[in-house]
Every structure is written in structure tokens, then in C-alpha cells.
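pinned: reference chain
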Amino acid sequence: MTKTDVPPHRRILSAAIYARISSDPLGQSLGVQRQLEDCRSLAESRGWNVGEEYVDNDASAYSGKSRPAYQRMLDDLRSGKRDSVVVYNLDRLHRQPSELEAFVAVCESAGVRDVATVTADIDLGNDDGLFMARIFAAFAAKESGRKSARIRRKALANAQAGLPHGPVRPFGYEDDKITIRESEAAVIRQVVERFLAGESMRSLSAWLTETQVPTARGAEWRPSSLGTVIRSARIAGLREHKGEIVGPAVWDGIITVDQRNQVLARFAARKASGRRAPRRYLLSGLLRCGRCGTPLYTSTQHVKSTTNGRQVRRSRRYSCMSGPDHNGCGKLTIVAEPVEQIITAAVLARLDSPQLADALSGRIAADEQLAKLQEQVNADQSKLDELAGLYADGAITAREWMAARVPVETRIKTVSRQITDQTTAPILDGLIGNGTQLAQSWESLNLDRQHAIIRAVLDFATILPGRRGAQSVALERVQPQWIH
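pinned: its C-alpha cells
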């Protein structure tokens, strides 16, 4: 049909060309470009003016994901900005009957009748055209369902065979996703070692940025992306599918399965503690009030000059807090720096004592037990989430929520303590009997590492009342309770 063959009342003034491809992992848009070329040729042969090309690359119409270009085209059809649609095939527009009906409603309200495709034309203004469009949509939905099932079966079969997957090269491996890239594998091993020794994902990702080690995509590391890598089954030589390990992989592991179990256990313990902010105090969570027995909390006080009243420095402190959120007596405060020095010296001396070696013997359980403890924490955390959902929905009262929550939270704390106990070995690896040498390099360790070492040795320390306003701390005020 030529331009002179088009009736005057059906002449197309501003057509919309739409193109879509479901999967384009490499981002090259080759399939979309081929669709556009054919649609342009079709529009030119009809004498239709093309107002705009709308392209959704790597977007499935069957999955229900948002298609921004498609939605924008619908808006332009509604407003009258476009008066027809050109598409390679109808299944590029819709692969679900419900989407077709919504599209037809838009076209009817806007008076749009012409949908031209390279394979067939549809006139939405008559029953026969609408009937054919619905048949095409139903057939496309059926084929998409079959294709999705085939893809799922193939993905499962590949996983069970231990084959690699995914379009992006994983950090630590070459482009074939099987051969270990030793330069990156060495980084992973060092990160795992330092994480198990007490460092945080935040400090480790900052270290990788400082040393200019990029991700596999060439970006800077973030705590979340680094955590994903060292938790992955892949680096332990295991194949994972939909969150479940289905067996050994065809590639070698960078770390051992035992090391990965220790990593997972440590993440579970950190999650249970709820800590997110960067650490600023060495003894956070390790001090108790000698008056009422509640934990001491960190605080900062501004010390003012007595002559002009200006603030000249800040004083870090550990304080007993009163009120409903803390339940302490509020009558005890201790300056941070002196008590941190006392505890540090005591811990370093403890590392050289035979009592510590005796206390640690037998505390390291099998990695299978670590995995079981971690599963218990995860299960209890899910129960807490479920309880919160029931309370939010009004299914249970606040009193019922509190009554059910307390024993679960108590159990999480108990099991998390067991996990921490059983992951002490990596934290103190090479330090038992070397407290004197460690003292010489103590200041070079970051705060996370220092805290982890102290926590692995010290259960808590009770701080007894002292002289009000004192800037020094008498040794007898600090009563450590060692791990045993």
C-alpha cells in the first residue's frame, strides 16, 4: 500500500514505532536495532510519518516488569500525540492477554485503529481485528509460559551439573567463570581472613578502595557487594541455585567450605547484634554498671573553659543511662580513655596467660554445629519478622507481640553468643602467647580489630563507683570477667 492508497480520514500523521527484546545481557541492542530497521521500512512503504521510536531493551513483557518506553507510548496515544503503532510483531507489544485489553482500551478512547506489524496488520476498530489480536496475545502467553518452563528446567540442570551461570565474570575468576584469577583470589582470601579476625565490611571495602582494587565490573567496592562475594557458595567451590546449594561446582574453590561456614556464622552473629554504624568506642557493649548491673552506654561531653566559657575539647565517656529505653540508675560515669587503656593492658596480659589457653580449649566446635546455630538464628529472626507483621496487621495486640517477642529475642542473643564463642579461633589466631608482641603493634590495628580481640577474651567488665569528676581511673574500679 502506498501513501496515495491511504484514505484521507485514515492518513497517519504521527506513528509510534515500538521495539522490545526480552534479554540483552551484553547491552548491545542488536535485536532491537533489527526490529527498528524493519519497522522504519514498513512505515516508509505506507507513507506514515514516524513521530518517535519507543525502545525497551532487555525487558520482558511476560514477566510483568515495568517497561518505561511502552508506558510513555501509551501516554502519547492517550494525549493524541501519536495516532498509530508500528511494531515488528504483536508479541513485542504484549505477551499477556490482560495487557492487550488495557492497550485496546487506550486505543479505543483515543480513536487509534491502526496497528501495523511486519507480519500482519490489526484494525482495532472492528470485531475481526480485535478477535485476531486476542488470539495472538493468548498464543504468545502460552509460548512464553513454555519458554519460561524450559529455561527454568535448563537452569536447574546446569546447577545440578555444577556449571557456571550469569552474564558477568565473578570476581576471583577468569571470563570462563571456572579458572581462578590468582591476583583477585589472593584479595578474597585476605578479606576473609581479616573479616574472621574481626574487621568490618565497611573498613575492608574502604581498604580495597584505597589500594585501588576494583570489582569485576571495574567499580568501587561497597560493604554490601563485598559481603555478597565472601558469603557466596561460589568461592568455596559450591554451586548454588535459588539460594540453595545443590552440589559441588566444576570450578575450584578459593576458600574452603569450613571457612565459608565461619564467614556465615560471623555474619549471623553481627546481624543478631544489630550493629550498623561505624565503631567509635573500643569497649562498646562490654562494660556494666557497678551500682545496678545494666550496660554502660557511650556518650560525649563538651568540656568548657572556665575563663571564657567556650568549648575547647570533648570528653568521651561510658555512662549508666536511666529512663525506659535503658533502665539504668543513671548514677555512674567513667572517662573512656583511662578505662580503655586499663582493659587493653589486661587483655594483652591475658593473651600470654596459660589460663586463656585452657579456657579456649574445647570451645571450637565442628563447622556443622556452626551451620546449625546459624540456621537457628535465621529461623528465630524470621519468627520476629512474622510477629511484627501480625502486629502491623492488627492480628495480635501489643501485649501479645511483646510476650511472644521476648523469649525469641533472648534465644537469639544466647545462640549468637555461642556463635561468637565458636568463631573465636580466627580472631585470636597467632595471638595466644604473643600478647607482648601484639602490644607493640596495637595502635596500628583499626578499632574493629581491637574490639574483636578484646571481645574474644573479655566477657564484660564491671565498673565500680568512683570519685565524682575524676579524670583518672583507679585500677580497683575495673573488675573484668574473662571468657571461660
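why pinned: The chain has a mean pLDDT of 79. The domain at 182-255 is CATH 3.90.1750.20 (Hect, E3 ligase catalytic domain fold).
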